[in-house]
Amino acid sequence: MQSIRRWMAKHRILAKVLVCTTMVICYSSLLLVDVTPWLVVAVDLFMIFFFNIWVDVSIANLVTPTIKTLNEQCDPYPMLEETERQLHYGYKGTLDQTNRINYACALRQIGQYQQALDVLNDINVDRYGGLQAVSKYVYYNNLMDVLTMMGRYAEAEIWYQKAVQIYKDLPENRIKKQLADSVESAAAYAWFRRGEYEKAKETLNATQPKELCNRVGHALLYARCCVAEGNLDAAREPLEFVIQCGNRLYAAQEAQILLQQISVTPQSD
Predict the structure, then answer these.
(1) CATH number of the domain at 209-263, please?
(2) Between the N and C ends of the chain, which has fewer C-beta atoms within 10 Å?
(3) Hey, which bits of 117-231 come out as E strands?
(4) CA 154 to the chain's CA centroid
(5) Which long-range contacts (CB under 8 A, 24 or more apart) does 23-30 make?
(6) How many Å apart are CA 258 and CA 75, to the nearest integer?
(7) How far is it, in rounded angstroms, from Cα 130 to Cα 124?
């Protein structure tokens, strides 16, 4: 199945033509059993619509296991490689937009902040009507995150507010519940940018992300809050957790540098 998806990814238009043509021929054979012609036409049109979407979903599923690897193993490189590969396929429309957002996310996780920002800035999320509100939320949240990492707090705050507004406008359903941890994490970063370190830590303590990658990110932010408050001893344990569990995330390198810095810095009274 993986090889079929890869072929469809490389030959997306041809795959759609072949799949849709095959389905149309198969269902048009219903004419041989005296089915009403208009019903056959209706079914054929539905098949064309359905299998156009099916091909794109199959291609998108190539990225799914790499996202799981990032979340569970803190390894962003499979996601980076897959999204970069798909960029060379020359997609258009919402599939391209979603792939670029994922690519920027992978770049952010390896510490390529400026490159991630450049990719995000090249995306016009309002150009394609097919891009879901959830994808727009992810886009704005990624912008906020990257700009925060770059220390551009004022700009990050603008995109944070846009992301929060999109989240509030989402219908109450399973997807919105799944985004709850992300929203709380974004709120913690917002408190950090504003210098409200205790509130940031309270928000982090109230949130227990399921994915290891997010727990690592929370631990690093918690440590940064402690360092900003001058409580260096409290920062050591979360930094050690990031180093131990961060695997190939750039966060592990950041934690190592920060731990070395506080190790040679005398604790203030």
Answers:
(1) 1.20.58
(2) C
(3) none
(4) 22
(5) 23/47, 23/48, 23/51, 24/48
(6) 21
(7) 12
